Amino acid sequence: MESYLGLILIIVVAVLLTAGGMFLLFRQGRKAAPPPVRPPEVRPVPEEERAAPPSGATREDEAVTTTVPPPTRPVEVPVAPEIEVPPPSAGRMVRLRARLARSQTTLGKGLLELLSRDRLDDDVWDEIEETLIGADVGVAPTQAMVEELRTRVKVLGSRTPEQVRGLLKEQLLTQIGADTDRTLHVAKHGERPAVVLVVGVNGTGKTTTTGKLARSLIGDGNRVVLGAADTFRAAAADQLQTWGDRVGAEVVRGPEGGDPASVAFDAVARGIDDKAGVVIVDTAGRLHTKTGLMDELGKVKRVIEKKATVDEVLLVLDATTGQNGMRQAQVFAEVVNITGIALTKLDGTAKGGIVISVQRELGVPVKLVGLGEGPDDLAPFDPEVFVDALLGD
Ligand SMILES: Nc1nc2c(ncn2[C@@H]2O[C@H](COP(=O)(O)OP(=O)(O)OP(=O)(O)O)[C@@H](O)[C@H]2O)c(=O)[nH]1
Ligand SMILES: [Mg+2]
User: Fold this and answer.
1) Do 389 and 93 contact (CB within 8 A), yes or no?
2) Does 212 map to a domain?
3) Closest Cα partner for 361 from 322, 391, 326?
4) Is there a domain that residue 48 lies in?
5) How confident is residue 98, by pLDDT bands cut at 50, 70 and 90?
6) How far is 276 from 188, CA to CA, in rounded Å?
7) Residue 223, domain member (yes or no)
8) Is the predicted pLDDT of residue 130 greater than 60, yes or no?
9) What is the CATH number of the domain that holds 214?
10) What is the pLDDT of the chain when averaged over all its residues?
11) Ligand 1 site, residue 359, Cβ cutoff 6 A
């Protein structure tokens, strides 16, 4: 009997223990239950990623893998800008003729129409004179042209359109100087590079012209070093650096606010060390009223001359500023001995006559013309192509 009771007690205890254990287990199981399943968060995909998904990953992949850290963006490795080989400068103006024709034909067409009239009375001659002056030809050259045209027309009597065109072309070429030497002096002196100093009023296009010229010289097979002697603004040296990187020319620069003459000196020294063909020194655009700054330009030139010969001093002139720009340019001519003019923005004016007046006022030939903002929009000036563009075909 006692053993019965003992057995029952053991069974009761065992049942209780099992039930308690199961109860505890059940409670723990509830605690450990996973949180209700939420839909995965979908990260908004930026526009640029939508356009170009990372290779191998689809958009579905992205949605599923959101709990993992977002994919790291590819590290941007700086890539050196590709250096393009420009076309040679020869014949460049012919290729850019359309630019000229677009802006200049009103002058040419107007003159051709006036000169073709049957009766050329004083009123018509006055109109011809006004047209020429209005196109920035300048008073003295205009008078010379009109006088010559009057005599020729009298001799001719009745005129065919071809004859009128021929007459006008001849007169324009005479005024521009068809036979003027417009060679850009960029030949090396033995081992030494040629040096080109680029000067002019601010905003005329000095830095752009420096870059374009470097590109064209490199295209012709030269090694070019650029001197960023515009130290007044850090952005100026950066602008030149961008050109240098683009065309494959080394750029020598100094600290912002540093001595422009010392940068010019260093650039020439580098050119000599590197056996470069040409060193082009870009300078700051400065107002002629700041005498101190103008003196500084003289100093830049003198300092370069301690190391090399300055072969060209190019005055950059904005064709759209007309007579006003010319007056400012004259002051540069007094400080440095200008050897040539780079006439920029000729694509943006109908007053092509400035070619004539600027040469006359400054006594130096236009050697280069800027016909746009692109890297190949600089051409050696060709009077014949210019006049043909003026008069149309
Ligand atoms: N349409 C046209 N724009 C030109 C030409 N040459 C230069 N430019 C533009 O003129 C502006 C001024 O050019 P820059 O080369 O910075 O002039 P800059 O003389 O160096 O100016 P500063 O350094 O401020 O004195 C730029 O926007 C050029 O792209 C040209 O032949 N045609
Ligand atoms: Mg500049």
Assistant:
1) no
2) yes
3) 326
4) no
5) confident
6) 9
7) yes
8) yes
9) 3.40.50.300
10) 81
11) no
